[in-house]
Amino acid sequence: MQSRSAKFRIGQVVKHRFYPFRGVIFDVDPVFSNTEEWWLAIPENMRPSKDQPFYHLFAENEETEYVAYVSEQNLESDESGQPIRHPRAREFFRRDRKGHYQIDRGELN
Length: 109
Description:
Blueprint: E1 13-16, E2 22-29, H1 36-40, E3 54-60, E4 65-71, E5 75-77, H2 87-92, E6 93-95, E7 101-103
Antiparallel strand pairs: 1-2, 1-5, 2-3, 3-4, 6-7
């Protein structure tokens, strides 16, 4: 399986193209790196290719916050400017004056 460069970056706020959730990226896999069971649970007509970047998100929808694993083809940039309310996002990132999420270096030590 050949990987390609990631379109999105850690700290970027994205939203799902089809489902009503958004989140901030906290990790990137250059190709699919989850279980086969997880992949097969996706409806076949929506199942993404494994040879693309997959993103780990501190995600949220109207009801809850959670961690999501999403293929690049199913994401787009979220330009709403709204902050992410996921509590883990505040642990790993700080939000600058322009609303961008930067890794909180204090959390990495």
